[in-house]
Amino acid sequence: MSQMPQRQAYGMALADYGDLNPDVVVLDADVSSSTLTRYFAERHPSRFFNMGVTEASMVNVGVGFALAGTVPFVNTFAALLTLRACEQIRTCVAYANTNVKLIGGYSGLSDYKDGPTHFAINDVALMRAMPNMVVVSPADNVEAAKMVAAIAERDGPIYMRISRAVVPDVFDDSHQIHLGKGVIVCQGSDATIVGSGSMVGRCVQAAAALARENIHVRVLSLHTIKPLDVDMIRQAAEETGALVTAEDHSVIGGLGSAVSEALASHYPAPVEFVGLNDTFAETGPDPDTLMDAWGLSVNDVVEAARRAVRRKTR
Amino acid sequence: MHHHPEALIYDLQEKARQIRLDVLDMVYRRGAGHPGGSFSSAEILAALYFHHLKIDPGRPDWPERDRFLLSKGHAAAALYSALARRGFFPVEDLEQWGHLGAHLQGHPDRIKTPGVEMSSGFLGHGLSIAVGMALAQRYKGPRYHIYVLMSDGGVQSGVAWEGALTASKYRTSEVTVIMDYNDVQLDGAAHDIMPLEPLLDKWRAFGFATIEISGHNMRQVLEALDAALEIHSLPTVIVAHTTKGKGVSFMENTAKWHGAVPNEAEYALAKAELKGYQP
Predict the structure, then answer these.
(1) Which of A107, A178, B105, B259 has the fewest CB atoms inside 10 Å of its own CB, making it the most exposed?
(2) How many domains does chain B have?
(3) CA A68, CA B134: separation in Å to the nearest integer?
(4) What's the 3-state SS for A95-140?
């Protein structure tokens, strides 16, 4: 496992990408030392704008930047961005279809020490419900870094969530990302585990544990939660008959909901959900212990897969 | 300071009259809309669209054009009239306001309507958007001026004052806020619902240069717009005292006409008053 937190991979990639694309500007709401947009600020001071604690206005300033032809990356903690500035995002980014990149740091439970006020457990639900919005949750540092260019170079509103924590490596540097396309991490036919963000590495570990029980699961990594790769989900349902979704987010409205909506329309199949079960959770000693305590452990994924297999009807 | 000849003043007053007549027709025909706050903005919009703004209806995407942001999106009908009469789209389109498939939405939509710089509807967003435009042009160019028309209701919103803080930090003299201060909002008088006074002191404390005018005096509107361009170190707010429902006696200064539709008799009376209105 890389010892670099995902936020650091993102912050370094953003600073590097700033060398390549002079149209990129970065806004932050007094948390650049936390989101690590500080790296961009140090390398490109004329293109960095610290907005203080004005999240709602910051999103609008970003909209102005976009209307003027630059590519703004608007950063703060995911919960603040998607909740405090929710109406600005709805009206001025999503509805007005402006080319703003919204980057929510400290996703899920990754800000373990600050507690539930700082957790982002419904950001995906909120952003996914916005027409025009693309929603991205990179699985690891490779995806977080590569996603910077990918979202900058795709026109339109995009929300990306980034973990504060060290997340398990899943991919190597040769990994290619295509927005809207899922990734088959490993093949299997007994069931499918669909993960996003920091849960993908845990899904891979769960698959290895299940293989020791002679249960061979397919693992899909969805860095793009919207638009969902419906073809890949449908194929998984057809070929494996049951699914598990795993996300560092509430089970209401996130990846599990998106997958279930697709299956209900295209190929109904049993789904087991791994996520926060309609709870705010609590403060913890470190990210992994906290996730394990609140239903996001590797074993939780394993047990969900066993249940999914038992529910198979075809 | 430019000299504004009487003929220009007269012409722009007639443009303001045309905006009011269009708004009345549009609201009556559609059975929906916001006459009060549209009428209070008529002189300001006429001055901007028919004289002051550097715009070209044939090139709505001209990079060097001035930007106008209608932060009080409920005055959409007045903006649509100004845009149509200025040539951004056919005047006949005004009859389609709110119809299914029409480009004229209930509130302005930048994607659908030529000349609309930014979608709006919920109050208070324009100033911080303008600040972003100002900062972007410093970095990327080209240079242009940005005008934001805000209502007293919009100035009650927190996001407006966050935008003011940001404008002050970056001294965005590229931005001129025009405040259509009619002192009447949906539920009643602004000074009762949520008082803004001492308003000029507030704007000054937030780092703005202030100009105070009557928003229905065309010469004062033109001179204020010119004066704001001469202020090179601060953002400017023009606090324009206006009358909600201006030009129709029974609509003036009453919250009832924020979002009400005249009946047949009221429509006829309003039309006659607007045609005879002498500024």
Answers:
(1) A178
(2) 1
(3) 8
(4) HCCCCCEEEEECCECCCCCCCHHHCECCHHHHHHCCCCCEEECCCC
For chain A (314 residues), the mean pLDDT of every run of 10, in chain order, is 89 98 98 98 98 98 98 98 98 98 98 97 98 98 98 98 97 97 98 98 98 98 98 98 98 98 97 98 98 98 98 86
Token pair for residue B142? 């080209």
Task: Tell me the chain B residues in contact with residue A65 when contact means C-beta distances shorter than 8 Å.
Answer: 132-133, 135-136
**Range of the structural domain that residue A12 is part of:** 6-161
Residues of chain B with a CB closer than 8 angstroms to some CB in chain A: 67, 109-111, 117-122, 125, 128-137, 139-140, 158-159, 162-163, 165-166
Chain A residues lying within 8 Å of B106, measured CB to CB: none
Cis peptide before A268 (omega within 30 of 0): no
What is the CATH number for B241?
A: 3.40.50.970
Clarify whether residues A221 and A283 are in a common domain: yes
Q: Does residue A87 sit at the B interface (CB-CB below 8 Å)?
A: yes
Whether the ipTM is more than 0.85: the answer is yes
The reply to whether residue A67 touches residue B158, judged by beta carbons under 8 angstroms, is no
Q: What CATH number is associated with residue A49? A: 3.40.50.970
Tokens (6 digits) for B57: 């209806």
The whole model's pTM is what? 0.97
- Is B1 domain-assigned? no
Residues A122 and A193 in one domain: no
